[in-house]
Amino acid sequence: MSRIALAAAIGLGLFSQQASAQETPSAFTCEFKDGSSWSYAGGAFHSKPPSPLSFNIENIDLERQTAALETSGGDKSGKLSVVRAINANHFLEVVNEGFLNLTTVYDKDPATGVYPAVHSRHFGVLGEPLFAQYTGTCRTK
Fold first, then answer.
1. Looking at the domain assignment, is residue 1 inside a domain?
2. Domain assignment present for 17
3. How far apart are CA 25 and CA 58, in angstroms?
4. Residues 69, 70, 71, 77: is their CA dihedral positive or negative?
5. Residue numbers of the domain that contains 132
6. Of all helices (H) and strands (E), which one includes residue 116?
7. DSSP label at 53?
8. pLDDT for res 76
9. Number of folded domains in the chain?
């Protein structure tokens, strides 16, 4: 192998290591206190602050791309699919009615020790579109 090819291989190897997400814990406790929600009625979307929410993401298996959702009452309410990204993991839930919930957990912030997170809900009630987007944090459980 030439020196140029060896240098390129080493450089690519170092780049791929830097681009991978941090090691993910096997479970998170997540809290979302800020955000907005929108409902569609009377021909227009209307915005209001959403109620705070919290839940746990359990049994995270990045190799199998699976996890489980546990809500505040201890209910194991959902199976999550995992989509891996650079510096984040997305946890996707398709609820019984076909609506979608998506939680993105970013790499740990070294200054605070928490994982910044965003949670989005896309659903409807009585035929009216509703969606919400939250910002918050997750902690290792």
1. no
2. no
3. 9
4. positive
5. 22-140
6. strand 115-125
7. E
8. 65
9. 1
> Amino acid letter at 137?
T
HSE-CB at 54 with a 13 A cutoff on CA atoms is 12
3-class secondary-structure state, position 111? coil
Burial 43-52 (b: 16+ CB within 10 A, else e): eeeeeeebee
The two beta strands, 88-94 and 78-85, are: antiparallel
82 within some domain: yes
What's the CATH number where 27 sits? 2.40.160
* Stretch (H or E) spanning 13: helix 3-19
Residues of the chain with pLDDT below 50 are 1-21
Q: What pTM did the predictor assign?
A: 0.80
Please, what sign has the CA dihedral across residues 48, 89, 107, 54?
A: positive
